[in-house]
What does this fold into?
Amino acid sequence: MQARQGPPLYQFFIDLIKLFSKESIIPYSGRGLLIVLAPLLSIIGLLFTIVMLPLGSEPLVEFDESLIVALYFLAFPGLAMIMAGSSSGSPYGTVGSSREARMMIAYELPYTLSALTLAFYLKSLSLSAITHYQFDHGPFFFKYPLATIALIICLLAKIGRRPFDAPEADTEIIAGPLTEYSGTLLGLFEIVNGLKWFVVPAFVVTLFLGGGANLIEFLLKCFGLVLLLSFIDIIHPRFRVDQGFKFFMKWVLPLALIDFVRSLILT
Amino acid sequence: MLEGLRSFARRKSPWIMHVPCGGCNGCDIEVVASLTPRYDLERFGVLQKGTPRHADVLLVTGVVTAQVKDRLKRLYDLVPSPKNVVAYGSCALDGDIFHTGYGFAGPLDEVVPVSIYIPGCPPRPEALIDGLSKLLKPPTRKKRIESEVFAGGEAERPSAESKDQIVTGKREIKKGFNEQLAEFILFTGITVAALGLYYKGFDILVVAAVFLMGPVMKLLSSILRR
Amino acid sequence: MKRHIIWDALRSILNPSTTKYPKKSFIPPDGYRGAAEYDSEKCVGCAACSQECPSGAITYDDEEKARVIKLSYGICSFCGRCEEICPWDAVHLTKRFELAVFNRKDAETGVDVPFFECTECSRPFFPSPQMKASIEKVRETLEKYKIKQNELASLISVCPTCSFSVDKMPERRMFLRRLVE
It folds into this structure.
């Protein structure tokens, strides 16, 4: 869309290798342990979620409460970014982490409510129960469309893309919470950014769009969702933090609440 | 083989930070113009970053004035090695028309070590592309060995005033506090992981993985860094 | 109107407007002011470019056997005044813009103009092409005035020291008297 040649498709991996081979500098005015811990926590959260998702077949680790545990682990990247920003000692980091905290309050609530509508409908918290139900009766998108739409809008804020990318705003605060990161630690955060684009839509595809009978169908559905999210991302400018907060409270939360109440009442 | 992969990755993904010192800003306009779709520096993997901690190449334009000299030294210290400095425009070379002025504080290589100079007033965006490609892949084999800064050589270390700690750098030769801490974390992690596998407790495995990830990543980066 | 925009956006994916610069060479348009080059056959060593250069990029130095004119690209601002002022048409601003160097001292150009030796004391004293050109001009003028040149050989191709020496004074006076008549 920009009429330019652009970098090659494998540029992300080259960036990662280059970042891992540079030195990481921990600034003197930051807390060393928390700076190193933040990207590790993000990766742990995302990897453990992947292990629990049924990617078209049985998940690797299966137990009865996997929905709640998946929600718990998917909150790690946001929390880790808050920790990274406030422990790095520079004002850019502090501003970025306060913006991220504000956006987390805004989007975690409709996100959790949409996920819990299914729990109340099926009376079970297990991800494989949700997948089996959708295999028999069709995706949940047709039963609870408002919750799906609310969840998809929350995805944009969770991945950190426009119109809700105020925490990592490139032109206002130089890199947000990641300003003082370099080398290996920055490479870990780049891996987290890349993984988030897969894990978070995969979670939504499992919950609402029918998990897919095999891996190919699952990946195709993920790809379609990612395409939709990229499209919305490209055409929008950036919301201010308070505008984003108000948007979530005014428009997204009522959608999630309506479907949540519907699932409470109708069962 | 690892050496080749490392220098390939460093050549194909130079992240620049544009530092405008004093001057007429003509060179700054040309740098910004070369990031537009027509000349497109991004097809070489170049990303323009705002913070020196993310950058590999400092692109310095404009004449070095007395005000900017100390700040330029501090910016150079903040860039993690291996790093390069590109002096863009005649002002950074020898001062252009400002070299007799009262604010002129010397050519750029008396403040920071420079890897490549691009004369011009202002140089075309194509001259910037040419200079960057000469820096990333020098023309002759002898020059390739000389410009080792980018293929794994070392630049100067920060001055004594900077108290930043360097993790996973080659400079930590003796076993300082960081090395011992890393070993302690490694052994704790292995113990906790063993306990978690024995009792099949999921949350214990989380804690173990957190402890283990750090040393694993440190090992990976020290392999790639060497 | 909207359909036109979408069509343009789709077309720009297949046909990007990026230049193919490093793979295909690029010639700037006419009138582009690139690096200055000296034509060593035309330059007489008058150093008028050095007088005119506004940034002081052109310097000249009289060494033993030649006058060395040096143009430093680090101070040059590529304005083109040296090309305008040169009376012998020896400096030209070419279209060359790929000037990246690894060493600051490599970014310069120049010309060496050899000196002319005095016929009496054989000491080099003045840039040779300019001397030869002046001698040509004097010969033309002398022909117009119908004066024989071989008499005046010792007055023309000599250095100032030899030319004003005491034993040449009668000859000079004779020459000037004949010129006045």
The radius of gyration of chain A is 19 Å. Chain A has one domain: 11-265. Residues 11-265 of chain A form one domain. Residues 102 and 203 of chain A are 23 Å apart (CA to CA).
